[in-house]
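Bumping my old thread because nobody answered last time. Still need a sequence for this structure:
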């Protein structure tokens, strides 16, 4: 199989413009004859469905939640990047492009990343026009803040709930198309199988999660916008329902999976408090904009943080990376926190945490507010109180959330944080048009692998999802559908639909018939522990080989001893969960295979055997400058295909944030 990324020729700053000027178009009358299925209604799915409905296509949108408003995009907190250069601090489209390539440790495509940077400014304009309440400066202009891996302020935000506000904007656009009849919304429906006819994606089998009924749906094209697979680790910052099932069904039908081992560990998560937990909560990276991260200089120090003097604190990110300090990329910050805790400097009862301290920012903002208010010789208490008001306006909902979860008041004591699984850079392999290796099947947003390489910069997930949905797929899908206007809709009575539905029916029945002794949750938790211990923040060959064997054994045990209560033709969340965990188990095996084959460290993929003398990721550009795209061949069998990465504009170097 030859992987053709279909990157347009010409200078990088003209590739997307040239593509749009030469791609095929579908006239409005013909668009009304074409049907498109969109699976997932987060930022990528909602924006795509809304845009395609606005263009005149007949769209069917599916989400397993009870409303598109509950998509996991709502959980994003800190912001969305765009190269507007409002601060006049040196930002540009090229700078955003460069930072993203470097942040991804030179494992992403130049063409895709430049297009993302190019689209970023339009995204902000689109969202402002929709009424997204971005934070503004006193004079009314949009405000910006910094995020990791960059030295400019380019992150637009709405307090600590940016994802929610952006999703409401996309949701409004989607619901407008629903009201006009251009989009038909199927909530509480989960894709169970992909239907392929004559080598092209032609529909899906979906299950009504309320009634249990299986449904057949035709589409001239299918868009998978179903998010990432971080829940393969069980404990992650993802919503508990987030899963890989839609993408995995596509993979087992021939869509290649790109770089599945590239997982992002987010450095600012509330630490695990016990075995009872089934989910972790993120503290926005925006807190690193004003916060300082530290541990005591003395091992095993049990003093309360406020009692530890300044000269006995190790601000280790500022010490190790003076140029970027607390705003190093997520993979770098995460490994640094793990290293300090592993060395015995961790804090809290578990000793698996570090402090995130904003009290310097309290004082800095407090002094500024005192000057603005004309307060001469303010007391320390006045300064702290004035600064707290500014912090509350910027991060108030995050502080409230932290206190509710931990019982500690972050206005009085530093937050405790520790890295956790957050985002997956791997996903279905797609070309420049966002099409997978199955014709007519597209993957958007976190469901594809395309834009972030081995590590995603903060505030870039929302940017990619909206870029794919609002500004890319409306062009690229037309290039494909222009040749489909002669093909009439295929009846769902077609044999391919019947076979796909039968396959789903048999799988669901087999899950119910096992009637073993262990609940689904047990298997998910055990899988997560294997993945975190042996394919998490650090990996090595021996651990990965063990993990593969353990996961294969876990799969056997799952299919012989899982207990799924309830029936098939009813509301049955345990059955839904069982199907998702079965897919996670298979994915986990592939992730370990991918991590084992990549004998280098890059970004979030840190192989302990491959590191620089000072503990940084050590790439091998000679042997691994490619996308690893895996083809499913059968149980426990995958074939590797390689898409070489070519850098014409940026020269790959050892990342340096010092």
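Sorry it took so long. Here it is:
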């Amino acid at each position: 199989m030859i992987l053709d990324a279909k990157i347009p020729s010409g200078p990088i700053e003209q590739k997307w413009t040239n593509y749009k000027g030469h791609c095929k178009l579908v006239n409005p009358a013909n668009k009304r004859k074409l049907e498109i299925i969109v699976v997932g209604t987060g930022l990528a799915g909602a924006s795509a469905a809304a845009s395609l409905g606005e263009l005149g296509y007949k769209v069917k949108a599916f989400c397993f939640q009870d409303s598109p408003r509950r998509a996991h995009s709502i959980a994003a907190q800190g912001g969305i990047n765009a190269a507007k250069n409002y601060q006049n601090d040196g930002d540009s489209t090229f700078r955003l492009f460069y930072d993203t390539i470097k942040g991804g440790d030179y494992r992403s495509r130049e063409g895709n990343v430049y297009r993302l940077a190019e689209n970023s400014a339009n995204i902000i304009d689109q969202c402002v026009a929709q009424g997204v309440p971005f934070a503004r400066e006193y004079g009314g202009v949009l405000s910006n803040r910094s995020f990791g891996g960059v030295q400019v302020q380019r992150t637009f935000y709405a307090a600590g709930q940016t994802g929610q506000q952006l999703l409401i904007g996309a949701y409004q656009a989607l619901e407008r198309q629903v009201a006009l009849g251009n989009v038909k919304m199927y909530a509480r429906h989960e894709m169970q199988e992909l239907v392929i006819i004559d080598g092209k994606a032609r529909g899906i089998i979906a299950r009504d999660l309320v009634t249990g009924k299986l449904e057949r749906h035709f589409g001239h094209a299918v868009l998978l916008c179903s998010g990432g697979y971080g829940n393969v680790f069980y404990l992650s910052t993802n919503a508990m329902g987030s899963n890989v099932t839609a993408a995995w069904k596509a993979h087992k039908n021939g869509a290649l999976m790109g770089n599945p081992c590239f997982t992002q560990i987010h450095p600012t998560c509330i630490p695990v408090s016990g075995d009872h937990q089934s989910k972790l909560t993120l503290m926005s990276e925006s807190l690193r904009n004003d916060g300082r991260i530290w541990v005591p200089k003395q091992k095993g120090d049990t003093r309360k943080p406020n009692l530890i003097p300044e000269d006995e604190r190790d601000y280790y990110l500022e010490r190790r990376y003076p140029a970027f300090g607390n705003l190093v990329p997520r993979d770098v910050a995460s490994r640094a926190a793990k290293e300090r805790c592993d060395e015995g400097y961790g804090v809290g009862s578990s000793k698996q945490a570090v402090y995130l301290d904003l009290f310097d920012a309290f004082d800095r903002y407090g002094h500024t507010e005192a000057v603005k208010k004309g307060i001469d010789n303010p007391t320390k208490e006045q300064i702290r109180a004035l600064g707290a008001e500014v912090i509350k306006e910027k991060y108030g909902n995050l502080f409230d959330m932290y206190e509710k979860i931990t019982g500690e008041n972050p206005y009085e004591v530093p937050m405790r944080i520790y890295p956790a699984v957050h985002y997956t850079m791997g996903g279905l392999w797609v070309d420049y048009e966002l099409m997978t290796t199955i014709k007519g099947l597209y993957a958007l947003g976190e469901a594809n692998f395309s834009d972030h390489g081995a590590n995603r910069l903060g505030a870039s997930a929302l940017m990619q999802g909206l870029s794919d949905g609002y500004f890319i797929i409306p062009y690229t899908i037309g290039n494909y559908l222009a040749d489909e206007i002669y093909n009439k809709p295929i009846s769902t009575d077609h044999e391919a639909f019947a076979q796909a539905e039968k396959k789903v029916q048999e799988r669901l029945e087999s899950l119910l018939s096992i009637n073993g002794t262990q609940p689904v949750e047990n298997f998910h938790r055990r899988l997560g522990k294997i993945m975190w211990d042996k394919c998490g923040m650090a990996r090595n060959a021996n651990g990965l080989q063990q993990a593969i064997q353990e996961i294969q054994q876990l799969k056997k045990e799952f299919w012989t001893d899982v207990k799924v209560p309830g029936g098939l033709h009813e509301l049955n969340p345990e059955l839904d969960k069982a199907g998702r965990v079965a897919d996670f188990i298979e994915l986990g095996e592939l992730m370990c295979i991918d991590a084992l084959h990549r004998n280098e460290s890059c970004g979030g993929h840190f192989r302990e055997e491959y590191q620089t003398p000072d503990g940084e990721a050590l790439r091998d550009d000679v042997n691994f400058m490619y996308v690893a795209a895996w083809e499913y061949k059968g149980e426990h069998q995958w074939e590797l295909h390689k898409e070489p990465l070519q850098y014409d504009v940026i020269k790959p170097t050892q990342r340096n944030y010092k």
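DSSP finds 18 helices and 21 strands in the chain. Let me know if any region looks off to you.
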